[in-house]
Design brief:
The structure is a single chain. With 311 residues, this protein is of the alpha/beta class. It folds into two domains: 1-76; 101-294, Glycoside hydrolase/deacetylase (TIM Barrel), CATH 3.20.20.370. It is built from ten helices and eight strands. Helix 8 (213-222) links the parallel strand 4 (197-198) and strand 5 (226-227). Helix 9 packs across helix 10 (272-286).
């Protein structure tokens, strides 16, 4: 091959190598950039989808709020009212627990005689199982934090007795009033909350008070206190004490066949077995087929009372 031809061939090879290099670099840039472009496109689609979903959600919430807030007058009023006397604000209908939690067994765990050295452990257990309860308390010095924790964690703080000495509580009407007023003020001063619920020492059907019980009920009504008894008992206050299994079985048997269950238990310094039993109850109901919910007593709860005022 002549020198001139050799020079032309070398020049041709160099140009071809450069072309290949450019193609390789272009391919590398393309394949490196392609995922980023795809990600940007996908991010744009996701953003657009989220915007559409938020718009749909806002429309649904608006429609739902409108439907809930605008309650028909026939649902809230017993007699017709002239238009000029109707308040311009919407009327809200408060559902009872039975309506709001229809299809559930509604369980109201109640604890008398606390706070105790076990109250915090009991509250921890309730939190673990997302359960709310009601505490009918005594005046116990040194437990201010426990009273406040009960309220702050969404449980109901009711009152039981100041001293829980039957001979003083039920000595006469004056003795009863003094006891209720004392525990009422004691709890209010610590928590800043006025109690709404009361449990008689020994229950409303006790035979210790020898006077007319209507006068006791009248006094509670004047204090705006609703008294609650129970329809399920753990028997954890039985003399000599019961094992955790016995207490749990008492509760589980008592729950059978009832939609609204107010369970009597005790939060006392000698009642740790009650907490152990309660965990058995939680686990048993958790593994069962029946839907249950643990609620605090409120103004929307079914009232369970052993006695009623005489007509």
């Amino acid at each position: 091959m002549e020198r001139g031809e050799n020079s032309d061939y070398n020049e041709f090879r160099k140009k071809r190598v450069k072309i290949f290099k450019r193609l390789i670099v272009s391919a590398m840039v393309f394949f490196i950039a392609l995922p980023n472009v795809i990600c940007l496109v996908l991010l744009g689609l996701v953003y657009k989808t989220n915007v559409n979903l938020n718009n749909i959600s806002n429309e649904l919430n608006f429609l739902k709020t409108t439907r809930v807030e605008k309650v028909e007058s026939t649902e809230t009023m017993s007699t017709p009212v002239s238009v000029e006397n109707v308040d311009t604000d919407f009327v809200f209908r408060v559902l009872s627990d039975a309506e709001e939690y229809e299809g559930y067994k509604r369980i109201y765990l109640t604890f008398d005689d606390g706070p105790s050295r076990y109250t915090n452990e009991l509250l921890d257990l309730l939190n673990e199982y997302n359960a709310k309860a009601t505490f009918f308390v005594l005046a116990q010095d040194g437990y201010d934090d426990e009273y406040k924790r009960i309220v702050n964690e969404g449980h109901t703080l009711g009152i039981h007795s100041y001293k829980h000495v039957y001979s003083e509580v039920y000595s006469d009407l004056n003795g009863f009033e003094n006891d209720v007023n004392s525990i009422y003020d004691y709890v209010s001063n610590i928590t800043g909350v006025n109690p709404s619920f009361y449990r008689f020492p020994g229950g409303s059907s006790n035979t210790i008070y020898k006077g007319d019980k209507d006068e006791l009920l009248d006094f509670l009504s004047e204090k705006d206190l609703v008294y609650y008894d129970w329809n399920v008992t753990s028997n954890d206050a039985t003399s000599g004490g019961l094992s955790k299994s016995q207490i749990a079985n008492n509760i589980l048997r008592g729950l059978e066949g009832k939609d609204d269950c107010v369970v009597l238990m005790h939060d006392a310094n000698d009642k740790h077995s009650t907490i152990e039993a309660l965990e058995i109850v939680f686990q048993s109901l958790q593994n069962g087929e029946e839907k249950v919910i643990f609620l605090p007593i409120t103004e929307n709860s079914e009232v369970i009372q052993h006695i009623k005022r005489s007509e």
